[in-house]
Amino acid sequence: LKEKTEDLKRERRLAEDLLHQMLPKSVAKQLRKCQKVEAENYDQVTIFFSDIVGFTSIAASCTPLQVVEMLNNLYVCFDSRIESYDVYKVETIGDAYMVASGLPERNGTKHADEIAKMSLDLVAAVCQVVIPHMPMGKLQLRAGIHTGPCVAGVVGYKMPRYCLFGDTVNTASRMESTSLPQKIHISSATYDALLTDDAYEIEPRGEIEVKGKGKMKTYWLLGNKNYSVQN
């Protein structure tokens, strides 16, 4: 009976660990208790989007299994690196990777700094990702960041998802889509949030036309003066 109990506890821990990979712990706890998860408003968070430059053409030249293997290698690399930062991986859609800081657990004014350090790390890391069927090829990342308010909540009953809503999400996505290869494109709101400790090398990009937003003053995040990315 004791052995069976230990086996049951071990299986329960494995199931909980898997659930916590898919949903925030606080959300998973409420769902396990069959409680309704209320949507929550966050005054300030920082959101990161990235995708692979030329992914459509790369995928067109590969078999489906090769595409899956390539993306798995990429996301295993990214997933292991973001554990070093106070961030939450929201989701992946194809070659798009979405991460936020400041939710579901609030972290004061640290969210922009955490995402900035993480983004520098991921842009450096993508060059090291091996593509088995393209040994001479190198992946390139295009990244965008924006800071602002958002709403987060669980949607769906079958395979429920923790989703973010609001203009901050849309603007962060626009920062990514108007970025360039191996560049981190940040909004003026993120720029202002990073100015507080003067730790970053940032270069003005100037005003650009952003779909649905009009002209926006944006910047390139180049590096951190006090921090070197992980090897």
From TrEMBL:
Coiled-coil region(s) at which residues? none
Q: Does the keyword Kinase apply?
A: no
Q: Which residues form the Guanylate cyclase domain?
A: 46-176
Known EC number = 4.6.1.2
Q: Name one GO molecular function term.
A: peptide receptor activity
Any keyword rRNA processing?
Answer: no
Kindly give the Gene3D superfamilies that the UniProt entry links to this protein. Answer: 6.10.250.780, Nucleotide cyclase (3.30.70.1230)
Family matches, as PROSITE patterns: GUANYLATE_CYCLASE_1, GUANYLATE_CYCLASE_2
Q: What class of enzyme is it?
A: lyase
The molecule here is called guanylate cyclase
Q: Which UniProt keywords apply?
A: cGMP biosynthesis, Glycoprotein, GTP-binding, Lyase, Membrane, Nucleotide-binding, Receptor, Signal, Transmembrane, Transmembrane helix
Similarity comment: Belongs to the adenylyl cyclase class-4/guanylyl cyclase family.
Its membrane topology, per UniProt? Single-pass type I membrane protein
Q: Which GO terms describe its cellular component?
A: plasma membrane
Give the location in the cell: Membrane
Annotated GO biological process: intracellular signal transduction; receptor guanylyl cyclase signaling pathway
From which organism does this entry originate? Spheniscus mendiculus (Galapagos penguin)
